[in-house]
Amino acid sequence: MNVQKWLDKNTDALAGKTVVISGSTGGLGRELCFHLASLGAGLVLLDRNRAKSLSLTAELLEKHPDLSVSHVTADMADIQSVSAAADQLLLMDIDYLILNAGAYSIPRYKTDLGYDNVYQINFISPYYLARRLLPNIKQRGGRIVAVGSIAHNYSKIDERDIDFSTRKQASLVYGNAKRYLTYSLFALDCESISVAHPGISFTGITNHYPKLIFAIIKHPMKIIFMHPRVACLSVLSGMFKGSGAGQWIGPWIFDVWGRPSVKPLHTASPTEAAKIAEITEEIYKKI
Prior knowledge:
alpha/beta; 45% helix
């Protein structure tokens, strides 16, 4: 796939626009930053690790000396940190918010809110940011894009264990959180919020296998899976084209490879989607 040709056809200049990217130093986030910088956007890097954020900034400025870059620190497992970050972002003229930060197979614990940290990182904190920043972004004619995942297909929600804290399988815990994120955002706003997924891409989030196994499979994975530079095009498509009610954007071939395509999403029944919206509202009020 010719990435530059796709960019020329499907994106516009972003001079004078500001884009916030959470998880900017990861595989997808990093490539998004370089794409957006080439389109002339100003960037706000929303990351937990400021040192990595500053290192990425240096690389970006080396290639784009006139780039406007600022930093906001946020730990997505700490709602007070996320709330403070939202306060800072509300003082800025933000046009786009890309909710890219995520975590898969990591040490798990209960956060101060009382939820599994994987559930909070992948669902509660991104939703909270979207809810806080949406009015300002809509006023500026911008858009929020959340990075979803095909992993949300792995299971249905469990009202007795909403954060899947009793489950041990990482794919179930991660998929449950992405399921909540996807359908809670559909309920929040389908006009100014898009959900995009990168398919399967070789990023840090795929580096969860035992070291010996990963050493064996990492090179075939790089060949089989799309490079993050290509995979993140679905997110850019979400920025420029949107998706609409009950739709998301991702690779057109089995949701795994190929150019971005808008597809209807029927993975949750209307009853389950309504329950997700109800539980989400309860969590937001608790915050």
